[in-house]
């Protein structure tokens, strides 16, 4: 018998909540979502594993994460000396994703309750390890779908499955790849984290670009919003005011100081919402 095998078990005895089975004439514990459905002397297919107590068990609910396929695993424990332990659905066994397969900086590690997409790997000591999915694994594993039609500024959610040099890669709940550049996040994002962001573009290879920042209009302050509204409601979408305007002209128009005006205009320029040309402020087309 080997850890992680999918094999046939014969139920030998059912007593209270304990089910004993036989695999190659060796006793094993049999797990099932509903043991009342199990019958003595009947054969069932299941997933063979050593539980945390070193006992052989066969679970008749075969986990999606196996030696041949990828599945979701929920982080149960973080151990900075070894890695993170994820649950793949086994009642008394979590799978270790080694620190060798995790980011160098532990602040980028998954946290408890985060989710990873893993496949199992068995080493020469018959131990099971969790291996993280790549783009190719997600494609071949059937995680990708093109059913949903995304729109600009649509809010989407997903989990981070890979950290890159300039940003993070996400698998959206709708089954599409997404990318989050580091300039589009306000704080660190880690592996396995569930995030919700706004679509800001559509990149190469059918990958969606998202942002965790509020859109430009939501990020401007009250003074900037007042100036922007004033420009928008002029007939030709331009306002005869600029840095060269006098404090009195600015005060008469907006009731704010020139320094506040310059700060607000600078914010609007930085957000690419307006332009400043020939003494006029204009809505950027």
Automatic annotation (TrEMBL):
Q: Which GO terms describe its molecular function?
A: nucleic acid binding
Pfam short name (any one): CvfB_2nd
Span of the secretion signal?
A: none
Residues in domain S1 motif?
153-213
Q: Which Gene3D superfamilies has this protein been placed in?
A: Nucleic acid-binding proteins (2.40.50.140), Winged helix-like DNA-binding domain superfamily/Winged helix DNA-binding domain (1.10.10.10)
**Residue ranges of coiled coil:** none
Q: Which family does it belong to?
A: Belongs to the CvfB family.
Write the protein's name: RNA-binding protein
């Amino acid at each position: 018998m080997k850890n992680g095998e999918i094999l046939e078990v014969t139920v030998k005895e059912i007593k209270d909540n304990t089910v004993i089975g036989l695999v190659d004439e060796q006793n094993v514990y049999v797990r099932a979502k509903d043991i009342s459905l199990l019958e003595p002397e009947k054969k069932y297919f299941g997933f063979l594993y050593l539980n945390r107590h070193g006992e052989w068990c066969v679970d008749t609910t075969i986990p999606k994460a196996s030696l041949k396929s990828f599945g979701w695993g929920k982080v149960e424990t973080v151990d900075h000396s070894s890695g993170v332990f994820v649950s793949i659905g086994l009642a008394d066994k979590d799978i270790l994703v080694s620190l060798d397969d995790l980011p160098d900086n532990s602040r980028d590690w998954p946290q408890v309750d985060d989710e990873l997409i893993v496949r199992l790997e068995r080493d020469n000591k018959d131990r099971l390890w969790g291996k993280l999915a790549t783009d190719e694994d997600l494609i071949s594993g059937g995680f990708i779908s093109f059913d949903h039609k995304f729109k600009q500024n649509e809010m989407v959610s997903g989990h981070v499955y890979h950290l890159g040099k300039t940003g993070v890669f996400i698998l959206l709940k709708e089954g599409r790849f997404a990318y989050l550049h580091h300039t589009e996040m306000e704080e660190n994002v880690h592996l396995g984290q569930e995030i919700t962001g706004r679509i800001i573009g559509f990149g190469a290879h059918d990958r969606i670009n998202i942002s965790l920042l509020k859109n430009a209009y939501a990020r401007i302050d009250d003074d900037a919003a007042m100036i922007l509204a004033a420009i928008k409601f002029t007939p030709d979408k331009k306002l005869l005011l600029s840095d060269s305007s006098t404090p009195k002209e600015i005060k008469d128009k907006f009731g704010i100081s020139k320094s506040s005006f310059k700060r607000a205009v600078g914010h609007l320029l930085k957000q690419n919402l307006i332009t400043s040309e020939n003494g006029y402020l204009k809505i950027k087309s």
